[in-house]
From TrEMBL:
It is found in: Mitochondrion inner membrane. The keyword Mitochondrion applies. This is Mitochondrial import inner membrane translocase subunit TIM22. Keywords: Membrane, Mitochondrion, Mitochondrion inner membrane, Protein transport, Translocation, Transmembrane, Transmembrane helix, Transport. One of its GO terms (molecular function) is mitochondrion targeting sequence binding. The keyword Protein transport applies. It comes from Elsinoe australis.
Amino acid sequence: MSFPMGGGLAGGAQAGLSTEELQQIKVQKYIAAASESCAFKTAMSGVMGFGLGGAFGLFMSSMRYDTPMTPQGAEISKLPVRDQIRQGFREMGKQSWSSARNFGKVALFYTGIECGIEGLRGKNAMENNVIAGFITGGILARNAGPQAMAVGAAGFGVFGYAIETYLRMDSYDASKDPIT
């Protein structure tokens, strides 16, 4: 008889293993249990969202440019080149930080709520993602008023449904692909 997280009883399947191998198995079980926890999933999602948001913000900021025709561009073009570059990098950093925070917050909320719902319901179903999207959209739009909360909740809920529908397709079949 073997118990969860136990090393097994003497004479069991692990009888021929050394103490080092038994320790490795024990550590693998702890790592697997930790990586399946809601706290770990939520934290990793927030960190990965932060990283992706930072990269996205940096890319989008580098694509934005001020021409000398705009008031901001006219001011910048009068500065020395070194100051123009410094100001450009400063703006890229601000945009990158802002996008990183926003992406990280969305990923953190969505994953935490979805994992909590999955734990409460006790099953991994598409409804969990739709409900999590609905709640996340409402939370993110809470400062803009009730109408914005309703629109944000509906938008995130529909987005969650669309993504889950696409990800849960059995196999790639062009006739079933909702995108094409």
